[in-house]
Amino acid sequence: MNPFDIPLQALLGQLLIGLVNGSFYAMLSLGLAVIFGLLGIINFAHGALYMMGAFGAWILMDKFGIGYWYAIVIVPIAIGVLGIVIERLFLKHLYKLDPLYGLLLTFGLALIAEGIFRDRYGVSGQSYNVPESLQGATDLGFMILPNYRAWVVLASLGTCLGTWFVIERTRLGATLRAATENPHMVQAFGINVPIMVTLTYGAGAALAALAGVLAAPVIQVTPLMGSNIIIVVFAVVVIGGMGSILGSVLTGLALGLIEGLTRVVYPEASNIVVFVIMAIVLVLRPAGLFGKEA
Cys-Cys link to 233, which of 28, 156, 238, 271 (CB 3.0-4.6 A)? Predict the structure, then answer.
């Protein structure tokens, strides 16, 4: 299809969908990059934490009548605490081993979580209504912009930039990075490195849960939603560079837009375009676009 023959509204609509998807890619890849960059763990359970975040919002609404704005605070904290428990019980024993062991363990945890939710809720999916304050749309003249999708993009960008700023531009972030490079030296200054590591994993889990809460009104809440997106998110992290926070955010947004554009120009390739780009990047720059060469 010739891009110049596509109606402007259809093109902008697909780019908006791509930007929303890219926002989720950016938030999830951000959490993966934080955990891998600071802990060296390839966290395959990230998709399951994202799914549990969406289910947490739905359960609060369906069972307890607790609305979206409370859920967006309660659920990330709860899943963050769960992440802390996972790190203390399982992951702390793997830091000196090959990252493959962490990948296998978190993959197993993801399968357990998905199995539990599939057994309890099935795979048909649950609907979660857009909060009343974000319903409706805004007429921009050249397109109609749904208010909730605009909120998703702004919230995701704010979260990603805030996390990047904390890790790259603050004393706390500098201490975290130093602790990953030389934990014994940092501990000699009286800093409890194991606690910092644990809280870092909890923060990464909370980011995944926040993405799940944001996604709940956009897509069906289903136990499969984590496994459906995690492979794409891993591709985003590989393209951006393992451990590169800024690279993951920028790559996630860019690939979301490319995916949306591909749906208009050549829909058959929209499901594989991310992986084609990943293959090209790995051939030309194995460390990723923003990663550091070994």
Answer: 28
Residue 119: how many CB atoms within 10 A of its CB?
A: 9
**Helices (H), ranges, 40-98:** 46-64, 68-89
- Report how far residue 11's alpha carbon sits from residue 4's, in angstroms, rounded to the nearest whole number: 10
> In the chain, where are the structural domains located?
3-120+139-284
Q: Distance between CA 17 and CA 257 in Å, rounded?
A: 8
What topology is assigned to 3-120+139-284 in CATH? Answer: ABC transporter involved in vitamin B12 uptake, BtuC (1.10.3470)
Could you read off the pLDDT of 168-196 as tens digits, one per residue?
889 888 888 787 677 778 788 788 888 88
User: Which burial class, exposed, middle or buried, applies to 117 when counting CB atoms under 10 A from its CB (0-12, 13-18, 19+)?
Assistant: buried
CB 204 within 8 A of CB 34: yes
Phi, psi of 76 (to 5 degrees): -60, -35
Global pTM value = 0.92
Residue pair 18/232 in contact (Cβ under 8 Å)? The answer is no
Q: Give the whole-angstrom CA distance, residue 85 versus residue 83.
A: 5
- In the predicted model, what is the mean pLDDT of the chain? 89
Residue 129's pLDDT band (cuts 50, 70, 90): very high
159 vs 130: CA distance, rounded Å: 20
